[in-house]
Design brief:
With 366 residues, the chain is α/β, with parallel strands linked by helices. Helix 1 packs across helix 2 and helix 3 packs antiparallel against helix 7. It has eleven helices and 14 strands. It has two domains: 258 residues, Alpha/Beta hydrolase fold, catalytic domain (Rossmann fold), CATH 3.40.50.1820; 80 residues, Orthogonal Bundle (Rna Polymerase Sigma Factor, Chain: A), CATH 1.10.1740. Helices cover 37% and strands 16% of the residues. The strands form four sheets. It has an eight-stranded mixed sheet, sandwiched between helices. It has a two-stranded antiparallel ribbon with strand order 2-3. It has a two-stranded parallel sheet with strand order 6-7.
Length: 366
């Protein structure tokens, strides 16, 4: 059995235009828009076997496989997506796009404004998760795809998945938000706000600091304790100065610097702001009203050690869907790794998704 994913390439498509722009939720219009995406597997004749993957804040369209000229650059969900894997590309046509506002091929703050021939920077319009979904919908329109077998994503990707089920109930058969929420808590908003302030005060040095702050929220206290504890960077004693004393300090600095080398500071500002604005209850009047017209089945997956978007928030969504008599399955993954656990290889998650997809296939067949 060959489980190796074939090589892929990044595809770009131009959507909307100045004459026919995208109407954003902030009230502004915007166009043209480039969306970068990758596909895995083969679209069937009826175009009914598509699974849409939605990425998290720091993710991109490179969800699986590798590039011919970068064999070491493996997609962030490669352990889930591919031939004979949980999301089996022998059966499904899988597509993942970089979100509108991103910095990995799609139009974002680092893109060139055709009116000025300079990067948009802070002149880029404010976006929402709903706007990202509108751009994805136009991308699928360009491919003449009118049905989605599943929309799935973790964290911000889960928010997009829920927006898909709400915006386009006629298209989505299954919605799978993982480690996600229907609205950010005040604590989550606060962490993102501090990160943005760091960037706005010092764009060059602020992004590593913002990432350090964010990374703390992605891991659990147990995982940090087991991996680092209070172990010192130097073997003997405290330095009694403001240099790095603890291993956890060194690790966070490494994560911040690494992130700053591959991500755009302005994109971080815009995407975290979109996260803060995400509130299905406010947007629709209540959570019940948000979900009352959905037709898709739901698989809600939470992580027991996630304190950024804790299981209780997923359970609120589950209870709302049950009261509306919607079909919903809830699973809580046991992991010591916190919020980021959905990105780490996990056999339970593999089994849950493969079994869920197989069950859905049998139900449709019968």
């Amino acid at each position: 059995m060959n489980n190796k994913s074939p090589l892929v390439k990044l595809i770009k498509t131009t959507l909307f235009s100045k004459e026919n722009p995208l109407l954003l939720e902030c009230g502004k219009t915007f166009g043209p828009i480039d969306i970068a995406y990758e596909t895995y597997g083969t679209l069937n004749e009826t175009k009914s076997n598509t699974i849409l993957i939605c990425h998290a804040l720091s993710g991109d369209s490179h969800a699986a496989s590798s590039y011919k000229n970068e064999p070491e650059n493996i997609g962030w969900w490669d352990w889930l997506i591919g031939p004979n894997k949980a999301i089996d590309t022998n059966k499904y046509f899988v597509i993942c796009s970089n979100v509108l506002g991103g910095c990995k091929g799609s139009t974002g703050p680092s893109s060139i404004d055709p009116d000025t021939n300079k990067p948009y920077g802070l002149n880029f319009p404010i976006l929402t998760i709903g706007d990202m979904v509108k751009a994805q919908k136009e991308m699928l329109n360009s491919l003449k795809i009118k049905n989605l077998k599943m929309v799935i994503g973790g964290s911000m990707g889960g928010m997009q998945a829920m927006e898909w089920a709400i915006q386009h109930p006629e298209m989505v058969e299954s919605c799978v938000p993982i480690a996600s929420t229907h609205q950010l808590s005040p604590q989550a908003i606060a962490f993102d706000a501090v990160g943005r302030h760091a960037i706005l005060k010092d764009e060059e040095n602020g992004l590593p600091i913002a990432r350090m702050i964010g990374h703390i929220t992605y891991v659990s206290n147990d995982s940090m304790n087991k991996k680092f504890g209070r172990r010192l960077q130097k073997k003997d004693d405290y330095g009694y100065d403001f240099d790095t004393d603890f291993q956890i300090e060194s690790y966070l600095k490494y994560q911040g610097d690494k992130f700053a080398n591959r991500f755009d500071a302005h994109t971080y500002l815009y995407i975290t702001k979109a996260l803060s604005y995400f509130d299905l209850s406010k947007k629709h009047g209540s959570l019940s009203k948000a979900f009352e017209s959905v037709r898709s089945k739901f698989l809600i997956i939470a992580i027991d050690s996630d304190w950024l978007y804790p299981s209780a928030q997923s359970k609120t969504i589950v209870k709302t869907l049950i009261k509306l008599n919607k079909e919903v399955t809830f699973c809580e993954l046991n992991s010591k790794f916190g919020h980021d656990a959905f990105l780490l290889e996990n056999q339970d998650l593999k089994d849950i998704l493969s079994n869920y997809l197989e069950k859905s296939k049998k139900e449709l067949t019968s």
